[in-house]
Please model this.
Amino acid sequence: MTDTKRKRFEQLMMQNLDNEISGQERRELDVMMKEHDAWRREYESFKQLKEVTQNMDFKKQPLETWDLYWTRVYNRLERNVAWILLSIGAAISLTFAGFEMIEQIILDPHLHLMVKIGFLCVLAGGALLLVSTVRERIKTGRNDPYKEVIR
Model:
């Protein structure tokens, strides 16, 4: 019985701290805190914790910090290696999935010829758009006149 009562107290306490408690539940919580002094202290502790965390704010870094961050070799290398590995993994996975889809579409005797052609056109168009976008991004990245401009 005590374990069930304890869980009910915790539920009511959190509802009250989140301002989601009804009048009847609030009275039930008040009775519980009068009966158990330790529960009242726990409620007060959570209430203080909520006030402190609501008033917290992250320390804002000056813009110079980020400019300095990108000038360090390790930071640039780490991010570039991660992108390269991600790109290789995505290319391998997408290529495999594409070949499997094409194989399943072509070999399926129940699909109408026009549906097969439609799927293949969607796949080919997507692949062409992907290659075109990546190629354009690489080209503009090399020739970007504002690449070295610092804020």
User: Anything to note?
Assistant: The radius of gyration is 30 Å. The chain is about 80% helix and 0% strand.
